[in-house]
Each structure stands twice: as structure tokens, then as C-alpha cells.
Amino acid sequence: ESGKKVTVIFVLGGPGSGKGTQCTNIVQNFGYTHLSAGDLLRAEIKSGSENGTMIQNMIKEGKIVPAEVTIKLLQKAIQESGNEKFLIDGFPRNEENRASFESIVRLLRIVPEIVLFFDCSEEEMEKRLLNRNQGREDDNIETIRKRFKVYMESSLPVIQYYGNLGKVRRIDAAKPIDVVFEEVKAIFEKVDA
Ligand code: UP5
Ligand code: MG
């Protein structure tokens, strides 16, 4: 591998805050490859891999899959993409995820440029998830409550960690999709400049 610079932007925020929706918009406008850790894990379940059952059980319980598993899937997707600009959506979700990623990334010359933080109330996120209707096994009220708890206890501290490094760009994610994207666009116009 040559010394090409790889740019990674973490897209974080609670369940249903609009990470996936906004990543689709960013891809269309700014040439990034969107890697949703949750989508990669769900594809792994479907593929019938040996980890599939473990992943399925953890998602049903709203728990966080060990970094080793998720990072392997991310690395594979990065290599297959041929791109050098990535949105990593929904990862890292806890301290273990973050520390593992950072130790690998140092060797690969990958710098997490900024962290987009989609900030949204639980009330609004719950409403969105219950209305989504895409057959996700974790979009039931019981699992949604567990996801919120894990988010508050384990994922928010990761966002705070990057906040202390001055990397977080907070976005009011409770607004309509197009209004949120206007805010996102302004941030990317600076990143790419
Ligand atoms: N919607 C979006 N934006 C809106 C807006 N501004 N106004 C009104 N409606 C809006 O959006 C959710 C719904 O809201 C959609 O119907 C959309 O149209 C509407 P979406 O863009 O899908 O939100 P997103 O933040 O992507 O929600 P998602 O449910 O995907 O977030 P999660 O973080 O919960 O899910 P993820 O797939 O990342 O993870 C699922 C599980 O996988 C985790 O709980 C965990 O068990 C596991 N996981 C790991 O273990 N490790 C990982 O690294 C990643 C996941
Ligand atoms: Mg998503």
C-alpha cells in the first residue's frame, strides 16, 4: 500500500437521530463512501457467518458487538471501496470500540478528521424508530429502551472524549431532514476546503 491519506469522519448520535439519512445526502454531494457499522453487522447475520448468531442476539438486546468483529468488517469494506474518504456511521459506540480503532488506525495513517454529532431528544428518536417500518428486529419499544440506555451510558462518553479534543461538530438533529442537511453541508464545505 502506498502512503495515500485516508480521511475518516465518524457520524455519531442516538438511535434514530438520522445518521443513515444524512450520510446518504453527504455521499451524493461530497464523494464519501458511507460505512454503517450496523448495516455491516446486519449483512454479516444474513450471510450466515459463524458470528451471525452472536451478532443477532446482541442487536436484539441493544448491546455493543466487540470491536474486533466490527473493525474487521469496516476494514474489509474500506479495502473493497477503492475510495479514500469515509463516513463511519454508528461506530465507535463505547470506550472499547474507540480504543481498539485508534490503536489500529495509528498503524494505517488514518486520522478521524471530525465527528458529526446528531443531537436529538429521546422522545423524537423514539417516535422515528417506531414509525420506521423497515422490519428491523431492534425497532420495538423494548429494544429501543435498551438502545437508549446503552447510548447514554456508553456512547455519549465517546462523543465527550472527541469533544475534549475539539473534533465534535454538533448538529440539531430534531429539525426537518432538509434543514439538518443545510447544517451538515456547511460543515463539509469547510472540511473539503
Ligand atoms: N428521520 C431521519 N431524519 C429525520 C428528521 N430530521 N426528521 C424526521 N424524521 C427523520 O432515521 C431513522 C428514521 O427517522 C427513518 O425512518 C428516517 O426516515 C427518519 P435514520 O437515518 O435511519 O437514523 P439512524 O441514526 O441511522 O438510526 P439507527 O436506528 O440506524 O441508529 P442506531 O445507532 O440505533 O443503529 P445502528 O444500525 O447504528 O446499530 C444497531 C445496533 O447494531 C446497535 O444497537 C448495536 O447492537 C449494533 N452495533 C454494534 O454493536 N456496533 C457498532 O459499531 C454498530 C452497531
Ligand atoms: Mg442507521
From TrEMBL:
Identify which cofactors the protein needs according to its UniProt entry: Mg(2+)
Where in or outside the cell is it found? Cytoplasm; Nucleus
- What keywords are annotated for this sequence in UniProt? ATP-binding, Cytoplasm, Kinase, Nucleotide-binding, Nucleus, Pyrimidine biosynthesis, Transferase
Q: Which residues form a coiled coil?
A: none
Annotated GO biological processes are:
'de novo' pyrimidine nucleobase biosynthetic process; nucleoside monophosphate metabolic process; pyrimidine nucleotide biosynthetic process
Sites where the protein binds ATP: G16, S17, G18, K19, G20, T21, R132, K175
Task: Provide GO CC annotations from the record.
Answer: cytoplasm; nucleus
Predominant place of localization: cytoplasm
Q: What is its EC number?
A: 2.7.4.14
Cite the binding residues for CMP. N97
Q: How is the cofactor bound?
A: Binds 1 Mg(2+) ion per monomer.
Task: Specify the signal sequence span.
Answer: none
Lineage: superkingdom: Eukaryota
The UniProt annotation places a ribonucleoside 5'-phosphate binding at R42, K63, I64, V65, G90, F91, P92, R93, R136, R147
The GO molecular function terms of this record are: ATP binding; nucleobase-containing compound kinase activity; phosphotransferase activity, phosphate group as acceptor
Functional note:
Catalyzes the phosphorylation of pyrimidine nucleoside monophosphates at the expense of ATP. Plays an important role in de novo pyrimidine nucleotide biosynthesis. Has preference for UMP and CMP as phosphate acceptors.
Q: What is the similarity comment for this entry?
A: Belongs to the adenylate kinase family. UMP-CMP kinase subfamily.
Oligomeric and partner information: Monomer.
Query: What is written about domains in the entry's comments?
Result: Consists of three domains, a large central CORE domain and two small peripheral domains, NMPbind and LID, which undergo movements during catalysis. The LID domain closes over the site of phosphoryl transfer upon ATP binding. Assembling and dissambling the active center during each catalytic cycle provides an effective means to prevent ATP hydrolysis.
Xref: HAMAP family? Adenylate_kinase_Adk (MF_00235), Adenylate_kinase_UMP_CMP_kin (MF_03172)
Q: What is this protein called?
A: UMP-CMP kinase
Q: Which organism is the protein's source?
A: Chenopodium quinoa
Phylogenetic classification of the source organism: Eukaryota, Viridiplantae, Streptophyta, Embryophyta, Tracheophyta
